[in-house]
Write a structure and sequence with these properties.
This protein has 30 helices and 9 strands. By secondary structure, the chain is an alpha+beta fold. α11 runs parallel beside α14 and α20 runs parallel beside α22. It starts with a helix and ends with a helix. One of its GO terms (molecular function) is SH3 domain binding.
């Protein structure tokens, strides 16, 4: 700095700083100076402390234009950690509080103020709990007012979303002041950004609430038909669904399904009158016509014997005390709820299931109750009921939002599938586990096709009959099957180096194409994106921030660089610095599985990544290992190698089809006693 200032005859070098011209325009400090790359363009500008002092005075100006410009500049510079530290140390946040608390302006000035506040709080120098109630209520008022600019409402919703998880008091304050009705109004806005921020706050409230509060909130949202609205206006809207909205829909689905957790983990209480009545209703619905004979004509013993017989026909293992079958938790009382729902909402299908199996031979009857209990457990496992939400997952089922009582309706379809598969397999009681295994496969394979409605799910799952499952299994087995003859194994080993080289080339090509990565902070998911790619000559990694919607930016637009020669090592999972920053209690399994870092330079700086998918993680870690001259270690390498080896072996062994290959080579015959059988070429030439 002093050299530059001397060259331009500028006094007081300490009043100046260097700043990047491109990208986020970060200030250069002692701590980050070694991150400057060759080719980076820097500019000489006012130092962060001078700039903080100037803007601190500017935002207190009586002149509206000066104040607005200062706030606009403040909103931009606050992204830089050095500037933010300087500004906060001057008690700058207090001035921002007072502008919000006292100001009645709802225009551009307020938007810049809220933006600056959001950016300053992002650095975690100040606790959210330090905010005054007046400030919070003012921010809440912008959310609740109609005649406010959408950008101010978005910023206000974003501030509240960050605030809610930090303390119970803030959660209660926001929950009380911002009603669910108001959030639903914003959710129905045509502005997609406003809709997204409203959904983000709703999800933050649901995740921070206690179980009882969450249940009440979900009941209220159900009354207001949020499911139908999401299904019609968000999932099936003309605009494509963004990653963040997909994540929020996944969380909403997960929270809804987890409402079943309490019943799933509760065993049946044989002394509960209500639960006994539910159990008896199953028997009465199925055998109503048979039980029309006046019960008073029967002795107590006879009546008990009749009940036990009917419970046996229903498929309970313990027919004298069927409550025992429901003591196992999970699935606990959830299985009973599902059976009762099936019997009440589809009585014809229920009666047909029970009576059809009552008339079969003993060993071929499909036990309704036992199947229902096991099926409920399978559905809970497939739909991850009772498991905590992932921070990054986006896998929601569109059909979930297309149906009230989704879990129960899905059960009704699948229990009829159990009966159908049982008949197709001609199963006996000994085959029960095999049948349920096939049913699990039918459900998971159909769900993987992402059907948009339960009707479509029903059609597809019924089309995937037992013979279809056998065909799919056979195909998969053929793909996996490999000849284990010794000569073939030797050939395999000879082919490996060539095919590994092919995989290495593919990994480097993928790195040259590049990948879009998402930045994830310790507090919340970020919507900031960055792109990284390898130069065509495999000598430099280029990376830089990009805007949403940019799929493959040109290599020239990525301003940051790391020479491959400077790369020291690759870290993955828990070893990465950006996973260690999180407190161990909050470490997210998904992020740990997708995190990797490159250590570079003499000072051992790190470039941190969180891959969008496991597939990308495998390709990037393999490619970086190739650049470092190390072995490729991902599970994908083994999978790709197996596929290529299998294909290459099959091509080479085509001519040997139906020929058995011996384990040892045939013996070499002894040399002949004479060589008279050889043709004499010399005589032919004469």
């Amino acid at each position: 700095l002093k050299d530059v200032c001397d060259a331009w005859s500028l006094p007081n070098a300490e009043h100046y700083a260097l700043q990047y011209v491109d990208g986020r325009q970060t200030y250069i400090t002692e701590s980050n100076r070694r991150e400057i790359k060759n080719g980076s363009i820097l500019r000489l500008t006012t130092s962060p402390d001078q700039e903080a002092e100037r803007l601190y005075s500017g935002i207190q100006s009586k002149n509206v234009d000066v104040k607005t410009d200062s706030l606009k500049k403040l909103a931009s510079l606050s992204q830089d950690v050095t500037f933010a530290q300087e500004f906060i140390s001057r008690n700058g946040l207090k001035q921002i509080y007072s502008i919000v608390e006292e100001g009645n302006d709802t225009g551009e000035m307020l938007a810049h103020t809220l933006k600056a506040f959001t950016e300053l709080m992002e650095h975690d120098f100040v606790s959210w709990e330090n905010l005054s109630t007046v400030f919070i209520k003012k921010v809440v008022s912008y959310v609740n007012m109609n005649a406010v600019d959408a950008s101010i409402q978005q910023l206000s919703l974003s501030i509240l979303e960050n605030m809610v998880p930090t303390s119970r008091l803030l959660f209660e304050l926001v929950k009380k002041e911002v009603t669910l009705d108001r959030l639903l109004t914003h959710l129905q806005a045509t502005n997609a950004h406003l809709q997204l921020k409203a959904m983000a706050l709703l999800i933050a409230l649901l995740l921070t609430a206690t179980d009882a509060e969450r249940r009440d909130m979900m009941d209220y949202l159900r009354e207001k038909n949020i499911r139908q609205f999401i299904h019609k206006n968000i999932i099936h809207s003309s605009e494509p669904l963004g990653d963040e909205m997909a994540h929020y829909l996944y969380v909403l689905q997960s929270v809804s399904l987890n409402l079943c957790e309490h019943r799933m983990r509760s065993s049946m209480d044989p002394y509960s009158q209500e639960q006994r009545e539910l159990l008896q209703s199953l028997r009465q619905t199925a055998f109503e016509s048979e039980s029309e004979a006046p019960a008073s004509n029967f002795s107590t013993e006879r009546r008990r014997s009749l009940c036990a017989k009917e419970f046996r026909k229903l498929g309970f293992m313990n027919n004298s005390n069927p409550a025992e079958d429901l003591r196992r938790a999970p699935p606990g009382l959830l299985a009973l709820d599902n059976m009762v729902y099936f019997s009440r909402n589809t009585p014809n299908a229920y009666s047909r299931f029970v009576l059809e199996n009552s008339s079969r031979e003993d060993k071929h009857e499909c036990p309704f109750a036992r199947s229902s209990i096991q099926l409920t457990l399978i559905l809970c496992e497939i739909l991850h009921v009772g498991e905590p939400c992932s921070e990054t997952a986006q896998a929601f089922y569109p059909m979930f939002f297309g149906q009230d009582h989704f879990f129960e309706e899905l059960f009704c379809i699948c229990i009829q599938l159990v009966n159908k598969t049982w008949k197709e397999m001609r199963a006996t009681q000994e085959d029960f586990d095999k049948v349920m295994q096939v049913v699990r496969e039918q459900i998971t394979r159909t769900l993987a096709l992402k059907p948009t409605s339960l009707e479509l799910f029903k059609t597809r799952v019924n089309a995937m009959n037992y013979s279809e499952i056998l065909k799919l299994r056979q195909t998969e087995r053929l793909h996996q099957e490999e000849t284990l003859a010794v000569p073939v194994l030797e050939l395999r080993e000879r082919l490996k180096p060539e095919l590994l080289e092919l995989i290495r080339q593919q990994r480097l090509l993928h790195l040259c194409e590049g990948t879009l990565f998402r930045k994830i902070s310790s507090r919340r998911r970020q919507d900031k994106l960055w792109y990284c790619r390898l130069s065509p000559n495999h000598k430099v990694l280029h990376y830089g921030d990009v805007e949403e919607g940019v799929e493959s930016p040109p290599i020239e637009s990525l301003t940051e660089k790391i020479p491959v020669a400077d790369m020291k090592m690759l870290l993955v999972g828990k070893e990465c610095p950006h996973t260690k920053e999180k407190s161990s209690g909050k470490q997210n399994k998904d992020v740990l599985e997708l995190a990797f870092s490159i250590v570079h330079d003499v000072e051992e700086y790190c470039l941190n990544f969180v891959a969008p998918t496991r597939y990308e993680f495998c390709l990037w870690t393999d490619g970086l290992n190739v650049l470092l001259g190390r072995e490729m270690t991902s599970e994908r390498t083994q999978t790709d190698l197996d596929v290529l080896l299998s294909m290459e072996l099959k091509l080479r062994l085509l001519d040997l089809e139906n020929v058995s290959i011996p384990d040892t080579p045939p013996p070499i015959p002894k040399p002949p006693s004479n060589l008279n059988f050889c043709y004499d070429f010399s005589q032919a030439e004469q």
